[in-house]
Amino acid sequence: MNENNINENSFDEFETNKRRKKLLPWWIKVFCWIFMIFGLLAFVCLLLGFTNIKPSLAFYGFETNEPFSVIGMLVITVGILKGITAFSLWFEKDFAIKLGKIDAIVGIIICAISMLILPYLNDGFNIQIRLELALLIPFLLKLNKIEKEWERITK
């Protein structure tokens, strides 16, 4: 009995741990790096708002040159949220999938507002189809698909 226990323990050290990162497809890994940089730049734009430098901010169809306007704060907040989400997915944090789902849902809602409400507020009516939806919806579906496995794998 004791010998069997020793054999089991000796093989435990050779068992390979599954990495959560392996659950992510290549395109999410690429966007993790892009949005980690984007999140850092969003924070820099927030700091630039205290100076005379006015960065051009645009995301999901919302554009401004004023970081402390409502639209500017929306773009900066979304950028920082995307940066934190990308960081948590890349570094396999426990809360990454939940944060990613929140990020995707917020992105879908903002895209819908940009497509359906913003044209009425601007001069002239023109509907724009946001291509971001082509990535946000598969992102949300993929996160739903890997959520149970992500939670099962411990770091």
List keywords for this structure.
155 residues; mainly alpha; two-stranded antiparallel sheet; 6 helices; globular
> How many H/I helices?
6
Strands side by side in the biggest sheet:
1-2
- The share of residues in extended strands comes to under 5%
Report the strand count.
Answer: 2
Shape: globular
User: How large, in whole angstroms, is the Cα Rg?
Assistant: 21 Å
Which structural class fits the helix and strand makeup?
Answer: mainly alpha
Cα distance spanning the termini = 31 Å
Uncertain stretches: none
Instruction: Summarize the amount of helix as a percent range.
Output: 55-70%
Please state the average pLDDT score.
87
Written as H for each helix and E for each strand, in order along the chain, the element string is: HHEEHHHH
The oligomeric state is: single chain
Largest sheet entry: 2 strands, antiparallel
Q: What count of structural domains?
A: 1
Overview of this protein structure:
This protein is mainly alpha-helical. It has one domain (25-152). It is built from six helices and two strands, in the order ααββαααα. The chain has helices spanning 2-12, 26-48, 70-90, 96-116, 118-121, 133-152; strands at residues 57-59, 62-64. It has a two-stranded antiparallel ribbon. Helix 3 runs antiparallel to helix 4 (96-116) and helix 4 runs antiparallel to helix 6 (133-152). The longest helix is centred in the first third of the chain and has 23 residues, at 26-48. The two termini are 31 Å apart.
